[in-house]
């Protein structure tokens, strides 16, 4: 029984990898920089996309927003005047390369494509979408042990955003510990401390993003 399950998982990941490479080729051919934004529900993923759209004036931005069910996040993002598409995964706890494969072709004229993954800290780590950058968002309200409890998703990140830092004292979270844990897992990742509601750290994020676009 266990052998069958392992073989099925290997086949699934191999198929995903092949399709992710096709997605990656499409992005590169069309000059699209794609971001896979992962993190728990409530960490601030949608708000990050909204604020970034408004700040990146003159850059063609698109967004694909994954969720188990519903289009609320997609409607929020689309209200900022960009092309946005919702993907509902049903019972699946993550996006994969197949979920987004057909959707990406309608974003061929996009410069930046933000793909908001399903709110989950475990499953999305295993599935490459063909993105250029993997971003993991985490909030201090999740507890300052959240990084050490979910090592794999942080090991694979290009960017780690620790959000809602203004609430750290109120929830007794040690932001320094969270960053240390992230550094111990991934010394190469770019780390930002933000509070998107208050604007803390957002300029640093946008400055990095503008460097990426150049």
Structure description:
The longest helix has 28 residues, at 2-29. By secondary structure, the protein is α/β, with parallel strands linked by helices. The chain has a seven-stranded parallel beta sheet, with helices on both faces. Helix 7 (175-185) links the parallel strand 6 (159-163) and strand 7. Mean pLDDT is 94; it is low at 1-6. The protein has eight helices and seven strands. It has a single domain, classed as P-loop containing nucleotide triphosphate hydrolases (Rossmann fold, 3-Layer(aba) Sandwich), CATH 3.40.50.300. The protein has helices at 2-29, 45-55, 72-78, 97-101, 146-149, 151-155, 175-185, 202-213; strands at 33-39, 61-67, 83-88, 112-116, 133-139, 159-163, 190-193.
Describe the secondary structure blueprint for this structure:
Elements: H1 2-29, E1 33-39, H2 45-55, E2 61-67, H3 72-78, E3 83-88, H4 97-101, E4 112-116, E5 133-139, H5 146-149, H6 151-155, E6 159-163, H7 175-185, E7 190-193, H8 202-213
Parallel strand pairs: 1-4, 1-5, 2-3, 2-4, 5-6, 6-7
SSE string? HEHEHEHEEHHEHEH
Q: What structural class do helix, strand and pairing data support?
A: alpha/beta
Please identify the top-level CATH class: Alpha Beta
The CATH fourth-level homologous superfamily: P-loop containing nucleotide triphosphate hydrolases
Return the CATH topology.
Answer: Rossmann fold
- Low-pLDDT segments: 1-6
Indicate how many domains the architecture comprises. Answer: 1
- By CATH, the architecture is named 3-Layer(aba) Sandwich
- Strand order across the largest sheet: 3-2-4-1-5-6-7
Shape verdict: globular
């Amino acid at each position: 029984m266990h052998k069958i399950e392992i073989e099925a998982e290997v086949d699934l990941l191999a198929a995903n990898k092949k399709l992710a490479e096709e997605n990656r080729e499409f992005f590169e051919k069309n000059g699209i920089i794609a971001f896979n934004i992962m993190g728990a529900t409530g960490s601030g993923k949608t708000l990050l996309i909204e604020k970034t759209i408004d700040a990146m004036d003159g850059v063609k931005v698109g967004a694909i927003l994954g969720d188990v069910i519903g289009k609320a996040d997609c409607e929020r993002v689309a209200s900022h005047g960009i092309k946005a598409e919702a993907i509902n995964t049903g019972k699946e706890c993550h996006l994969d390369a197949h979920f987004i494969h057909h959707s990406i072709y309608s974003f061929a004229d996009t410069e930046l494509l933000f793909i908001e993954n399903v709110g989950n800290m475990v499953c999305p780590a295993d599935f490459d979408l063909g993105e250029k950058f993997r971003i993991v968002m985490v909030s201090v309200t999740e507890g300052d042990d959240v990084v050490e409890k979910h090592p794999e998703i942080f090991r694979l990140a290009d960017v780690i955003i620790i959000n809602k830092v203004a609430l750290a004292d109120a929830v007794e979270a040690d932001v320094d510990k969270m960053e240390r844990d992230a550094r111990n897992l991934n010394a190469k990742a770019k780390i930002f401390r933000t509070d998107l509601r208050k604007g803390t750290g957002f300029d640093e994020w946008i400055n990095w993003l503008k460097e990426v676009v150049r």
